[in-house]
Amino acid sequence: MAPILQSSQPWVEKYRPKQVKDVAHQDEVVRVLTNTLETANCPHMLFYGPPGTGKTTTALAIAHQLFGPELYKSRVLELNASDDRGINVVRTKIKDFAAVAVGSGQRQGGYPCPTYKIIILDEADSMTEDAQNALRRTMETYSKVTRFFFICNYISRIIEPLASRCAKFRFKPLSEEIMTSRILHICKEEGLNLDAEALSTLSTISQGDLRRAITYLQGAARLFGSSITSKDLISVSGVIPQEVVGALLAACKSGNFDLANKEVNNVIADGYPVSQMLSQLFEVVVEADDISDEQKARICKRLGEADKCLVDGADEYLQLLDVASNTMRALCNMPQEFSYET
Amino acid sequence: MLWVDKYRPKALDQVIVHEDVAQNLKKLVSEQDCPHLLFYGPSGSGKKTLIMALLRQMFGSSSEKVKVENKTWKINAGTRNIDIELTTLSSTHHVEMNPSDAGFQDRYVVQEIIKEMAKNRPIDTKGKKGFKVLVLNEVDKLSREAQHSLRRTMEKYSASCRLILCCNSSSKVTEAIRSRCLNIRINAPREDQIVKVLEFIAKKENLQLPAGFAVRVAEKSNRSLRRAILSFETCRVQQYPFTINQAISPMDWEEYVSEIVSDIMKEQSPKRLFQVRGKLYELLINCIPPEILLKRLLHDLLRKLDAELKHEVCHWAAYYEHRMRLGQKAIFHLEAFIAKFMSIYKAFLIATFG
Ligand SMILES: Nc1ncnc2c1ncn2[C@@H]1O[C@H](COP(=O)(O)OP(=O)(O)OP(=O)(O)O)[C@@H](O)[C@H]1O
Ligand SMILES: Nc1ncnc2c1ncn2[C@@H]1O[C@H](COP(=O)(O)OP(=O)(O)OP(=O)(O)O)[C@@H](O)[C@H]1O
Ligand SMILES: [Mg+2]
Ligand SMILES: [Mg+2]
C-alpha cells in the first residue's frame, strides 16, 4: 500500500477555542456561561448570528467544560444538519438519548457535571417547521433532564414557540480590533509576519467572519511564505480587482451595448462570482460623485433584483448582462421602458 | 483516445496553462494541514485537470489507479427506505462523485454517504492515521438543504478528510460553505494560451500547422480549452493537411439555433411560433440544457439587432431564464421568450417601416 499522509488539522480547527473564556467578542454569552460553570445552572439557549462568529465553538466548549472528556459522550448529543433531522428521527434520537438516567450530580475529575444532559441542535435553521414543532413537546417532556442549545444563522427561521423557551444570544460579526488580535495571536504561533496594512485588509475582506480570515491567512501563508502583504491576502480572498469592476462600469458609461456585453463575457470567462461583482458594483455606484441620485436609484433597483434572481439559481451571465444594460441606460439617460407599443 | 484526454497534463509541473495556480497548489499541499478547497470557473477551463494533478502530487501515481463503481445505497429516511444510485470513482486515497446526480434526494447523499466516508480514517500498516480526499463535482447544483448538511461535516471530520469541491458558478454555493474553503478561481484560458496548447498537440501529433490556423480555432472556442481541442481534432479528421482558411464548423445544435433565429427574424406569427416550438423540442430532446439554449438564442439575436432592441431583448432573456429556474417545464419559458421577442420585434418593424 502506498504511504499514508499524516494529517494535521487546518488552522481554523487548530485555533478553535476550547474554553468559553477564550471566545472573543461575545461578552454577554461568555458572562452567562461562566456563571453556569460556577452554579451549574443553565437555561435552554439559542445562539444566532452570521457564519464564523463562534456559535458552534461556544456550544462545544461549554459542553466539554461541564462534563469533561469522560462523560461527554454520554451527556452531550450533537445533532447538526449533516444528520437527517426529519420529525421521526429527531424524536427517536432525542428520546433514546434523554431517556437514559444520569447519575448523581457530583463533580467528577474537576468538572461540574450537572444532572442534566445537553442536546446541541446546530444549524437548526435548516430544520423544517414540522420538525421544530415536534420538538416543542419533546422539550417539555424532558425539560427536567435536558438542556437544549439551538444554533442558527437566521433567527427568523426558528419558530416562535421554540425561540421563546430559550435565552437568546446574538453573535456579532467580529470587530476589526478583536479580529486583529486573534490574527496576531495565530501569526505569533505560526511565525508569520503581517504589516499593519495587511492586517486591516484581512479584517475588511473577511467582514467579521473569523473563520474566513483564518482560512485566508493560512492560504496566503502556504502560497506566499511567512511575510504576507495586503496584496497576497486579496489574491486568495476572491475579491474582484478594482480594475475589473472599473472596466465594466466604464463600458456601461460608453453607451455601447456591444462593449458592455464584451466586458460581461470577460467577467464570466475569468470566473469571477457574479454575486461578488454585484456587491462591488453597488459600492462603487453608491459612492460615485458623478452619478445622480436618480441614476443611482435606477441602477440599484436592478442590482437588488438580480441578487434575488441569483439566489433562485438564475444564470450568472444573463443576470449580469441585464444589470449592465440597465446601468448603461441609467447612466446615459436612455429611456427605461421600451418605447414601441406592443 | 480523444485528444482532450490524451493530452490532459498529469502532473502539476506539466501544465501548459494555469502554471501559476499549479505551482501554488504544490505549495499548498506541502504541509499536511491544507484547508478544504473550492475550485470554481467556467466550463472547460481546466479545473478537473488541476484537481487530478493535485491528487497525484499528494498521493503519487496511486491516485491514478481508479476504479469506477456503480453503487446503490439503501438509506433509511425516517419512515421509509430509499435507494440511491451513484457512480463513484475511487483510488485508495480518494473518492470522487457527483452528489447532485441524486436530484432532490441529494441531501441524503451528503448526510449518509459523504458523512460515512468522511468519518472513516485510512490507517496504514504501521498504524499511522492518515486522511483521505473527497472530490465533489458540481456543488453549485446541490440543493440548499444538501449544502447546509455539508457544513458541520466539513468541520467535524477535518482531521480524517479533506474536501475538494468543484463548480462552475460559485454564486450558487452558499456563503457558509465558501467560508469553510480556500476558494480557487480557475479562469478560462486566454486565446494566446489556447494557441500554445494547440501548438503543443500539433507537435506531438507531428502535424503541419499553417500560421494563423491555431489562432482561428482559438477565436472560435469562446475561451473553452476543451472546445478548442475538440474542434481542432474535428478539423484534423475533416481535412488534413490543414489550410489557413479551412472551415471550422460550429456544433450541430448551434447551427440549428441559428436557423431558429433566422426563422423568427423573418416572420413573427402564431404559425411561426408553432414551427419553432418543434425545433426547440428537438434540441431539448437531444439534451441541450435549456439555459445554454436560451443563451445561444440571445447570442445570435444580439448579432443581428439594432442597439435599442438589444437592451430590451437581453432583459427578457434574463427574465425568462429566471422563471425557467423557478418553474418545471423549460419549454414553456423558452417559448414565452420567443413569443415576447416576436412581439417586440414586430412592434419595432411597424414603428420603423410602417
Ligand atoms: N468569537 C470567536 N473567538 C475565537 N475564535 C473564533 C470566534 N469565532 C470564530 N472563531 C474561529 O472561527 C472558527 C469557526 O467558528 P465557529 O465554528 O464557532 O463558527 P459558527 O459561528 O458556528 O459559524 P457557522 O454559522 O458558519 O456554523 C473557529 O474554529 C475559530 O477558529
Ligand atoms: N493546465 C492545462 N494545460 C494544458 N491543457 C489543459 C490544462 N487544463 C486543461 N487542459 C485541457 O483542457 C481540457 C478540459 O479541461 P478540464 O476537463 O480540466 O475542464 P473543467 O474546468 O473541469 O471543465 P468542466 O467545468 O466543463 O468540467 C482537458 O481535457 C485538457 O486536455
Ligand atoms: Mg457552526
Ligand atoms: Mg470537469
List keywords for this structure.
heterodimer, A: 342 residues, alpha/beta, 5-stranded parallel beta sheet, two-stranded parallel sheet, 15 helices, disordered N terminus, B: 354 residues, Rossmann fold, Zinc Finger, Delta Prime, domain 3, 7-stranded mixed beta sheet, 14 helices, globular, binds adenosine-5'-triphosphate, binds magnesium ion, AAA+ ATPase domain-containing protein (chain B), DNA_pol3_clamp-load_cplx_C (chain B), nucleus (chain B), ATP-dependent activity, acting on DNA (chain B)
Please tell me about this protein's structure:
The complex is a heterodimer of chains A (342) and B (354). Chain A contains 15 helices and seven strands. With 342 residues, chain A is of the alpha/beta class. Chain A starts with 10 loop residues before the first helix and ends in an 11-residue tail after the last helix. By secondary structure, chain B is of the alpha/beta class. Chain B folds into three domains: 183 residues, P-loop containing nucleotide triphosphate hydrolases (Rossmann fold); 48 residues; 102 residues, Zinc Finger, Delta Prime, domain 3, CATH 1.20.272.10. Helices cover 52% and strands 13% of the residues of chain B. In chain B, strands 2-3-4-5-6-1-7 form a seven-stranded mixed beta sheet, sandwiched between helices. The relative contact order of chain B is 0.09. The chains are: A alpha/beta (342), B alpha/beta (354). Bound molecules: adenosine-5'-triphosphate (ATP) (2 copies) and magnesium ion (MG) (2 copies). The site of one magnesium ion has 3 residues of chain A, from helix 3.
Oligomer: heterodimer
Biggest sheet, spatial arrangement of strands of chain A: 2-3-4-1-5
Please give the domain count of chain B: 3
Relative helix content of chain A: 55-70%
Q: Biggest sheet of chain A, open or closed, and with what strands and sense?
A: 5 strands, parallel
**Numbering strands along the chain, what is their spatial order in the largest sheet of chain B?**
2-3-4-5-6-1-7
Associated small molecules: adenosine-5'-triphosphate, magnesium ion
The percentage of residues in β strands of chain B lies in 5-15%
Elements of chain A, N to C (H/E): HHEHEHEHEHEHEHHEHHHHHH
Mean pLDDT rating of chain B: 92
Whole-Å distance between the termini of chain B? 58 Å
